[in-house]
Design a protein that fits this description.
The chain contains six helices and six strands; from the N terminus they run E-H-H-E-H-E-H-E-H-E-E-H. The protein is α/β, with parallel strands linked by helices. It has a single domain, classed as Molybdenum Cofactor Biosythetic Enzyme, Chain A. The two termini are 17 Å apart. The relative contact order is 0.18.
Length: 166
């Protein structure tokens, strides 16, 4: 595993941002990251506002604050679910295989997994991944992609891939 993988965890929820509902998914993801050996350098709760989400993703990636940004929430069909759009706004490149793997695994557990609009992509040297807002689904989805994250971060840091070329 690359040394010191830094994670930012952003919970996207109007109710949690207003203090009306406890954030369960963000702290859970932080614990999983810690147990995996990563470091959570930033944890925030944001409202379902595209411009706010976009600005925070830009700030984190452009400032090199984290290697991986995990968002949780705002990926469904509700009118205020805009996390995927905000993520697409800031991506330089897509990383569709990550969400394909998450959806394929989730589909084995629940028929509603096909309703996820989550995306993943890269801005500068930061990987951004959308996870569901449900604690159980967020955990299951993160566990699917964790085995690939160390290699992804190594490549984003300019490491050598399987083909032997940087």
């Amino acid at each position: 595993m690359p040394e010191g993988i830094r994670f930012a965890v952003l919970t996207i929820s109007d109710r949690s941002s207003r203090g009306e509902r406890a954030d369960e998914s963000g702290p859970l993801l932080g614990r999983i990251v810690f147990e995996w050996g990563g470091e959570v350098v930033l944890s925030e709760i944001l409202p379902d506002e595209r411009a706010v989400i976009r600005a925070e993703l830009e700030r984190i990636a452009d400032g090199g604050l984290a290697d991986v940004v995990l968002t949780t929430g705002g990926t469904g069909f509700a009118p205020r679910d805009v996390t995927p759009e905000a993520t697409k706004d800031v991506m330089d490149r897509e990383a569709p295989g990550l969400v394909e793997a998450m959806r394929a695994d989730s589909q084995k557990k629940t028929a509603t997994a096909m309703l996820s609009r989550a995306v993943a992509g890269i801005r500068k040297a930061t990987l951004i991944m959308n996870l569901p807002g449900s604690p159980r689904a967020a955990r299951e989805n993160l566990e699917v992609v964790l085995p690939a994250l160390a290699h992804a971060v190594e490549l984003l840091r300019g490491g050598v891939g399987d083909c032997g070329k940087p």
